[in-house]
Amino acid sequence: MPKTASLHRDSTGPARPMASLDSLLREWLPRQRWFAGKDRPVTELRLLSLTELFPGCLHLLVHAGHAPSPSGHAGVPAPGAATPPGDCYQLILGVQEHSSPRLGRALIGRAQEGPLAGMAVYDALRDPRSAQLLLERLRRPGSLGPLRFETDPAAAVPSGLPPRLLDAEQSNTSLVYGDAFILKVFRRIQPGVNPDLEVTSALAGQGCRRVPAPVAWFRTTQPFGATLGVLQPFLPDAADGWTLALHALATGDDFTSEAHALGRATADVHVALAAAFPGGPPAENGRTAAAMAERLDAAAHSVPGLRPFVPGLRGAFGMLVTCDPGPEAQRIHGDLHLGQVLRAGREWFVIDFEGEPSRPLLERCAPQSPVRDIAGMLRSFDYAARQRRPWRPQWARRCREAYCAGYAERAGWDPRKKHALVRAYETDRAVYEVLYEARHRPDWVAVPMAAIERLAVRGD
Fold first, then answer.
1. What is the distance between the alpha carbons of residues 448 and 450, in angstroms, rounded to a whole number?
2. Label partner for 422 (CA 20 to 30 A): which of 6, 86, 263, 390?
3. Torsion angle of alpha carbons 300, 302, 304, 310, nearest 10°?
4. For residue 214, which of 345, 53, 352 has the smallest C-alpha distance?
5. Dist. CA 222–CA 70, nearest whole Å
6. pLDDT tens digit sequence for 82-100
7. pLDDT band at 324 (very low <50, low <70, confident <90, very high)
8. Are 178 and 251 in contact (CB under 8 A)?
9. Percentage of the chain surpassing pLDDT 70?
10. Pairing assessment for the beta strands 341-344 and 239-240 based on DSSP bridges
């Protein structure tokens, strides 16, 4: 493919290919589910690194600079990197002379100028041939420019596994290979080891079977060290907790036994995490309350509908200062909900340990109260219950009770006896949900807003 190869011979720096890609990406990126800057105009696209994975397939890290949002947020700066505040995205792009019908939704457009002028550009992760070649690259440990491909020596990944893209809404891109493995390609890249690799590796070392262990991964050394993707075993017969909960609601089936078992599974993971990572004393509640209040103020600035409830929500945070400090801070999941758990047979598994992608990586990796995870799951039961009309609050209450009871059986402490603590973390989670839904799924804002009203007015 001559035009792709000439990129490396003729380019004097990584900026030159953007003459071909800039206009295409400015239009395409904001339409992607995983693009975090939908509420902030893109002011700059800068190519940070470019590597040819194989002929006709380019690996890029692109910095997207943004104008400040109404809350003043302009993105996450990369410590140690000479880039302004913004977001760094991983793109794997195919480039070919002719736009074949097989590309379908993968096609981004045709470059009009620069070194790729006249070439069709597409999202290579949506192209089966490119996705299969990526797996072959992962099967062989080694280096390719700044990219490093690594594997678990004890794991065997066969060649020739057919790929299929998962279309579920998520902040990354996932490919399933032959119903045997799943590759998560991180889209929004931050410096450091991604928790989805760090945590799953550590839990595997603890012998925790609630989490699929990584078998291969790839990372970059430029412009900073960062994890790019992780390959793990796929559970082909598993169903996620969200799907199971909605089915139970639709059929009128009871879900309390599943919620109870899920509480036990959550506690198993927390116990293993506490053993795998050095913990600490209980979180300093005054500092935690102040951080929650700061997030509330920023969210209310962006979502006017929150403003009438701010005084009541601040009351929930204020109770943290005088309540029982609760369990010791430790590594946690960080974004636990029904979509992050799978049931295969009679067992629950926990997946996706990245935490909330909008938060800085150092913050997501810091020890936190395990109550944050519990609150995330309690909110998820409410989300599920509100998908049916009329709303069935008793369904959510029974699930919450059963989940906490199951957790208490394995963890050695009972969330139901930490009411003020759970209420504060649940309120903080609901504030996050309102901001998230306002940015990404405006039709869903009413779901967390109903919880906001409940938590602010009645303090349930």
1. 5
2. 390
3. 0
4. 352
5. 32
6. 444 679 999 999 999 987 7
7. confident
8. no
9. 90
10. antiparallel
Token representation of residue 250: 């639709």
3-state secondary structure the chain: CHHHHHHHHHCCCCCCCHHHHHHHHHHHHHHCCCCCCCCCCEEEEEEEEEEEEECCEEEEEEEEEECCCCCCCCCCCCCCCCCCCCEEEEEEEEEECCCCHHHHHHEEEECCCHHHCCCEEEEHHHCHHHHHHHHHHHCCCEEECCEEEEECCCCCCCCCCCEEECCCCCCCEEEEECCCEEEEECCEECCECCHHHHHHHHHHHCCCCCCCCCCEEEEECCCCCEEEEEEEECCCCCEEHHHHHHHHHHHCCCCHHHHHHHHHHHHHHHHHHHHHCCCCCECCHHHHHHHHHHHHHHHHHHCHHHHHHHHHHHHHHHHHHCCCCCCECECCCCCCCHHHEEEECCEEEECCCCCCCCCCHHHHHCCECCHHHHHHHHHHHHHHHCCCCCCCHHHHHHHHHHHHHHHHHHHCCCHHHCHHHHHHHHHHHHHHHHHHHHHHCHHHCHHHHHHHHHHHHCCC
Tokens of 437: 């839904």
- CB-CB neighbours of 448 under 10 Å: 26
> Could you identify the residue written with the tokens 């991983």?
90
What is the distance between the alpha carbons of residues 405 and 266, in angstroms, rounded to a whole number?
A: 12
The residues, any chain, with a CB within 8 Å of residue 286's CB and separated by 6 or more, are 320, 321
Tokens standing for residue 2: 């001559």
The per-residue pLDDT for range 165-190, each reduced to its tens digit, is 998 767 899 999 999 999 999 999 99
- What is the CB neighbour count within 10 angstroms for residue 201? 17
